[in-house]
Amino acid sequence: MTNKSLLDGGMIPRTVKRVFDQRIEVREETQSQTAVLTIRGKSHVVRLCNISPSGAMVAYRGVPHIGEQITLQLLDHGEQVAYVRWVRDGRIGVNFAAPLSE
Questions:
Q1: Mind giving me the DSSP string for 68-95?
Q2: Do residues 64 and 92 lie in contact, with contact meaning Cβ atoms separated by under 8 Å?
Q3: Verdict on whether the full-model pTM lies above 0.70
Q4: Which helix (H) or strand (E) holds 4?
Q5: What are the backbone dihedrals phi and psi of residue 4, each rounded to the nearest 5 degrees, phi first?
């Protein structure tokens, strides 16, 4: 089985809610900031929930595939290539292809 076959677009269930945050990076809350998400050739204005140098959480009602490539046009960082890592309750988590510079 290849890694690609594991990224079939299915939701990754979480049976236990996170009790504490295991991430090393600080995430900046961005509740009022918007971005432009482009997926499958269509652009959508979305709300940026939080952002870190390696990724972001975005409010998006569509259901992208896990591992799918998107772009995010960010106000302070321009267009960034990213990959969908999770989808849940109208939000998605993405990892940037390259870390954001400060």
A1: -EEEEEETTTEEEEEEEEEEETTEEEEE
A2: yes
A3: yes
A4: helix 3-6
A5: -60, -40
